[in-house]
Amino acid sequence: MKKNILFIAISTLLVFNLSAQTSAKPDRMEWWREARFGMFIHWGVYAVPAGVYKGQKIQRIGEWIMNRGKIPVAEYQQFAKQFNPVKYDPYAWVKMAKDAGMKYIVITAKHHDGFALFDSKASKWDMVDATPYHKDLLKPLAEACRKQGIKLGFYYSQAQDWNNPGGAASRKVASEGWANPDSAAIDAYTAAHDGHWDPAQETKTMAQYIDDVAVPQVKELLTNYGDVSILWWDTPTGMTDEFAEKLDAEVKLHPNLITNDRLKRPNFPGDFKTPEQRIPNLSELDGKDWETCMTMNETWGYKSWANNWKSEETLVHNLVDIASKGGNYLINVGPKADGTFPQESIDLLKGMGKWMKVNGEAIYDTKASPFGLFTWGRCTQKASGKNTILYFSVFNWPADGQLVIQGLKNKVLSASLLANKAPLKTQAGNDGLVIKLPVKAIDPMATVVKVVVQGKVQNSAASATDKMKTGALD
Predict the structure, then answer these.
(1) CA 375 and chain centroid, separation
(2) pLDDT tens digits for 280-296?
(3) Assign residue 471 a region: left if phi > 0, alpha if psi is -120 to 50, beta otherwise?
(4) Could you tell me the residue ranges of all domains in the chain?
């Protein structure tokens, strides 16, 4: 009897401990929510033509040049013979991201042109077999990320593939790309062939493409490069639930892997939503994790004549705005064919890094503002024991030297400038808290005021606007 009781007691204790360990298991999204800031890298064969085909500038984004110019498969593949990135330095790339304050990198392992930056056994249209470089580009990048403590993610175009037969193609017409005298004929062909413009693209079915290329390559990416943190799907053109299930089966073998919402909507929502080239309004947010991906200029892939660069101030404001709404900011770099970043990208990353070195505390591991949006700036928050730290990023310095936080009734424990820790005086007003500021801002782009208050801050409707000029595209 005693043995039975002892056995039951031990069994109960083991079950309790196992349950406790299970409940204590960290959320795999935790690091991603803490990061708030990452680098997108669009790199591939399209960096060789760099937006120009047959002497003409192909409009719109550089990585779509094959589609926009309706370049035949055999002709486009010739560009790979010139793709020789001898100046590629993955350690320097990762260091630039880290110095900019970024916590993760997502790179186009394979974009819509079907070209794999890695050594793939599922297709010869890859870096090792089709270029004079003859080396896998992802392995040294994965190693550099591991050494520098940066999470690595792979973008993979699972449906659109304009080179591997059977891949889907978007219904984009030739007239959107360039002045081709055969535009009408090409348009008619693409309309009749589900967006394809070259018979070579249709020698296999999409089902064969999924089985022969997409699934094997995803398996390669998730098994040959160490810990992969994110799998970033894109454009589910022609995808079916059956195709998506096959790809999702590979994802399920990696329980810590995070995926986005572009595998196949709506039945495969992934872990986070992906507004592109825009920052959502507060009314659009539904409590789900989200990440805005955005270019620094007007293209993702390198285009030699794309010079409409965002300002450093715009990028900083975007980052703060996104964090204040509880999202992540994924800023893109489009490297050149030789493996170097455009100088403008380098300069902008340095500028953001300088700001983040001083003010990163107001971005990392923060939650959305409890006040909505302010006309003068943005707010982020984080818990500190039973208290709350509020970070007010001031874009427009008040002329009267008073920062009014409407709706804030909590007792103030401390208030200071984040940059130099200079204490600030506060006063409780009828509508909330008044913070007395110096005459001039420390940083004209965004000076952060740090306020520690007692307890949790209740959500309140502040006098705010959702129309800040962030430079985000519609």
Answers:
(1) 27
(2) 999 999 999 999 999 99
(3) left
(4) 30-362, 377-453
